[in-house]
């Protein structure tokens, strides 16, 4: 019997077609398929339980399969492995290539960045990941894109500006102009100092170190998952993103952020400090909400509004502190 996640809004007829296709491949009547998000499902059969994940190209699937295999060969076991599908043949359905990925039973307490211990463990996990990938990133330079932080953030900024007619319905001045000024100041100085980050030794970046891409299993071990955005670049790029995820839980305190040893080594790096001022989270969430037209969802609107306005004043104080620190460094 097919299990359906009713909170996930998708194409039910597509699920039915996919379910019928999978039954022909798994050759069992006791097949269960539960949607998790777009092109990602929990699949259970008599022989296996796995995550069924769809890729838009066979090449990308093979690269990710090879990457996770290389991670494990090099000694990083804190991630999933790809499983051989029934019959050993590639699962393809309506232009999507599906991989069977090891299912890791999650801990009853979902992982988050709310506690000091979780943040420390996440940083150590990321540090170990970078250390391992530094040994083999050269082998993936022709397979993975080069990280372009400045270019990505400029595009995100432009998109936010284009979305202002809609955003102004929900937040007013002086919030908007202040956030734009933070971004402009950050980008202009980051462009001049980006070499201070790029001159670092390269690793394979995870690219999306949100809390939902770190999973704690039933025994308490942490796993790094979802490598859709892996790129080649300096480790500081991942630490910037993780810092941005931490700061709302640290009351936007630079002092508390700098206590984490993996981040402490960057607190005199001008490019890193300029980048911390960029409101990446605000721009990302507004752009996504407008692109997906989910601003009518009260829960999503509340979250993005709180991110923008509820933390506005403490974030402004944080940026003023960054400016003071940068002045001292440059003297």
UniProtKB/TrEMBL annotation:
Molecular function as annotated in GO: transferase activity
Aminoglycoside phosphotransferase domain segment(s): 122-244
Pfam families named in the record: APH
A GO CC annotation given for this chain: endospore-forming forespore
Alphabetically ordered keywords of this record: Transferase
PANTHER family linked to this entry: COTS-RELATED PROTEIN (PTHR39179:SF3), SPORE COAT PROTEIN I (PTHR39179)
Protein name: Aminoglycoside phosphotransferase family protein
Taxonomic lineage: Bacteria, Bacillati, Bacillota, Bacilli, Bacillales
């Amino acid at each position: 019997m097919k299990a359906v996640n009713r909170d996930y809004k998708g194409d039910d007829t597509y699920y039915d077609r996919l379910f019928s296709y999978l039954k022909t491949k798994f050759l069992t009547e006791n097949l269960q398929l539960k949607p998790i998000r777009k092109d990602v499902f929990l699949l259970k059969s008599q022989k296996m339980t796995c995550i069924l994940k769809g890729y838009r190209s066979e090449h990308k699937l093979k690269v990710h399969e090879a990457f996770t295999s290389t991670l494990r060969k090099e000694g990083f076991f804190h991630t999933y492995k790809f499983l051989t599908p029934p019959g050993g043949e590639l699962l393809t359905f309506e232009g999507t290539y599906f991989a069977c990925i090891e299912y890791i039973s999650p801990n009853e307490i979902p992982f988050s960045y709310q506690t000091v211990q979780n943040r420390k463990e996440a940083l150590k996990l990321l540090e170990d990941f970078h250390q391992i990938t530094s040994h083999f990133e050269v082998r993936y330079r022709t397979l993975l894109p080069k990280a372009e932080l400045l270019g990505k953030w400029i595009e995100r900024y432009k998109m936010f500006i284009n979305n202002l007619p809609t955003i102004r319905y929900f937040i007013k001045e002086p919030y908007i102009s202040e956030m734009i000024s933070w971004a402009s100041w950050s980008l202009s100085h980051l462009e001049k100092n980006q070499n201070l980050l790029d001159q670092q030794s390269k690793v394979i970046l995870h690219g999306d170190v949100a809390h939902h891409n770190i999973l704690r299993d039933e025994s308490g071990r942490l796993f790094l998952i979802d490598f859709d955005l892996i790129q080649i670049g300096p480790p500081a790029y991942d630490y910037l993103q993780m810092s941005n995820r931490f700061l709302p839980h640290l009351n936007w305190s630079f002092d508390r952020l700098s206590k984490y040893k993996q981040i402490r080594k960057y607190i005199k790096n001008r490019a890193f400090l300029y980048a911390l001022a960029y409101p990446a989270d605000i721009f990302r969430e507004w752009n996504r909400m407008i692109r997906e037209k989910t601003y009518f969802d009260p829960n999503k609107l509340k979250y993005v509004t709180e991110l923008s306005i509820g933390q506005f004043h403490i974030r402004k104080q944080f940026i003023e502190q960054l400016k003071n620190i940068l002045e001292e460094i440059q003297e």
